[in-house]
Amino acid sequence: MNLASVPVEFARIYLNSAISFSVALAAITELKLQVWKMVSHCVRFA
């Protein structure tokens, strides 16, 4: 493993982590919205 490929490898790992994090965050936000809709819907008809 030569020194030139080290930053590239780090950049690739960082990018993959960033993408995964963004996807996870989006999924959590979407889930919260769905739960909130369901809860408010149930509360309205309670």
Automatic annotation (TrEMBL):
The chain crosses the membrane at residues 13-31. Keywords: Membrane, Transmembrane, Transmembrane helix. This is (Perigord truffle) hypothetical protein. The lineage of its organism: Eukaryota, Fungi, Dikarya, Ascomycota, Pezizomycotina.
